[in-house]
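Here comes an entry:

___
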Amino acid sequence: MSKLNIYYDEEGDFLELGVEKNTRGYFKNLGDGIFERIDEKTKQVTGIAIMGFKKRMENKKGVKISLPVEIHLSSEKSKAHN
């Protein structure tokens, strides 16, 4: 079962959201301090990282990410029904 991981580095003001299984990968810069984490083997998006997250929230700038961003989450139960 995959779980969403949320990691925040307060000192670096860096937020990362990703699926539980952390495989080898790399970050693709989407601009404006926003990055996709790409699985090296499957080339699928496995997470999103945001630089300056707290500062964006304090300035009410928010975070805008162009869609679609594909992150596939499924449960063991839903796999059994496919």
Q: What stands out?
A: Residues 4-60 form one domain.
